């Protein structure tokens, strides 16, 4: 910031609405932390406490300026907080009329017709704008000093009535908690917000109480009162708040004529009365529960008449559930079959049906599309209780419409059972609700219209939890999609692990367009090549720097029969996510410019991740692909999650149907290999055993006490070996499979291998390895440390593949053998000799059995430490030549 011609040069200025309150002021302070080197423009206030506080301390602490002090031509970015309405920003109107000004807004008030067109707009319907600013600062890891934290806390406490207003959200509490950690001074806030009624105030309050009249508007009771004075009444809003408390009023409109203006202050505790909307029609603003307006050139009676006109046009008559529900409901008993359910829903044209027990109580919901798919999979004779939704909400018949909207629209439950007590008396469907809202759209709460909860921006997590080159790749993919006229997303486990803070650079992209064409353009831009799979409309980008990126066309998969491979159809991102295994993997991250970092969550994945729950997206998920059960167990153990109750019931149902028998051995083997690649595979295997999954794969795959012991040792041995960082890599799948099948007979092992679709070569190698391990175990039984030379151990172990040696180390109960096998793996197997066959030929020893015998003897001596240098080895070779001379001179 510098001065020219006596005016301040400022690229970025921050302001709030005229007649600012503490929340507006606090939000400006917060914005100054997000926009360093900005200038704060004070918008003016009529609140006495706020004005005094501003004059005494805020000017000094935060360097507020008047707009007249700014060279407006130097301004390029205008940041507006606590409002978006043009009419509430008269002090910066010259900036609003310029086309070259970029505008950013941060607000917690509902949309209005006069909202600014902003290049960036952050809207969250929280109790205070200060809480929004705190959230933005936390996303960018910005720290505060005590004065800044106190200023922001002042805004939150004031606009939430110290957390007593019904507009208060959990986000306001969380923001205040964080501010407390940053040094927020509660005593300062208490002093500033504590207001004692003066004699003058008591007089005004008495007039307001005497002038109050109660009115019934469409069944909604509200109070309107007024006062007239030639001077400004300080703390008028405070008097309104006191009147609400004294009289326990649900909806209050106070009109105050002060000089030539009419001030309207409104408060509402009734969701049917949106005072923000009403005051906005008067030229003011606010949110649903607290609002105000200032009207010029009208009398009190004219403003009162305007208000009543607005009351009758905007206040809706209360709708209760029993007036909306369909009754009596069509139901089906839980003992019925899927075929019966399909016939019932088809006959009556129902999209779903409540499931009841023998007493008529609702115990579940069944969707028509699920029943149809189940019948298509040959499950028509199954009881519908196996596939009904058991985790659902109900509503009482006397409840109001907003509970219905929260469940059907907010929680996406398509059908809502209506109860009297515990008896089912009706149902409300999503279609019923939509028809009502089409006729009366004003009833729709802003929170349910907004996609903010489903698409919060996590770009700060992306920046903080991924390497720069990965973030650059994502941005480049988004830019490319924008140029091609498509939308691109990062999806699946990659997004899940960003939220969990786990390392994962396996980038999967989905394009609402042509995935293969997109992949081709991406490698052309970044350098590399692609492998395209036209049948599945996917491609793999292999970049020049070695990175791999999977690209898919947004698609919907469906399964023609249980356990089949999927058939692919084009679809949108929502349907693409719906085909995935679990909610926590049904996430997408927008990559296009302007939306980069927005999290797309249609199915409650964030909630499930927070609750550490694994949940399928629909009740036929395991019927269509039983391998998802193995994935559920893997994820459960990897993340420390738990399989949800409904999902666990579906697991057990799939096992009862013997669906694993319909899976090919290759698909099961693929999933088992992934299990063995987990960081703690034994946890997964034990969980699989507990659930009966090992037995479902093959009856011989079950955990015994001895197998568990060996598998535990295998996990330790394998982890130890990995820490040696040797070139030879062991196949963990082969190693753990040996442990899982330990003790089975040769013909039994062949049956397991056949079920898992091993090739003939794989089966032969496995059987040969088992034989080698068995032979080595017998030979090691007589091995004694200190008495049997290490070369004996070396000769036993050298012919065996690495997996067999590691298995022997885990299998053995003798600590001395385990210790010496570890010595073999780490050092002895790399021992070599410096004497070659050419050396022996020069000594006159012909090639033959003795030739090999001498080299083996030298190697054994080298292993045992009996010879060292090449000279010592050559000397030993000469001795052996004489010892074995008769054998090669006189061969038999």
TrEMBL record:
Record carries keyword Cell inner membrane:
no
Its recorded name reads CBS domain-containing protein
Task: Give all residue intervals belonging to the CBS domain.
Answer: 325-381, 388-446
Cofactor(s) this protein cannot do without? Mg(2+)
User: Which Gene3D superfamilies does the record cross-reference, listed alphabetically?
Assistant: 3.10.310.30, Beta Polymerase, domain 2 (3.30.460.10), CBS-domain (3.10.580.10), cca-adding enzyme, domain 2 (1.10.3090.10), inorganic pyrophosphatase (n-terminal core) (3.90.1640.10)
Per the record, the similarity remark reads:
Belongs to the tRNA nucleotidyltransferase/poly(A) polymerase family.
Look up and give the organism this protein is from. Answer: Pseudodesulfovibrio senegalensis
Q: Name one GO biological process term.
A: tRNA processing
The family database entries (PANTHER family) matched by this protein are listed as: A-ADDING TRNA NUCLEOTIDYLTRANSFERASE (PTHR47788:SF1), POLYA POLYMERASE (PTHR47788)
- Classify the source by domain of life: Bacteria
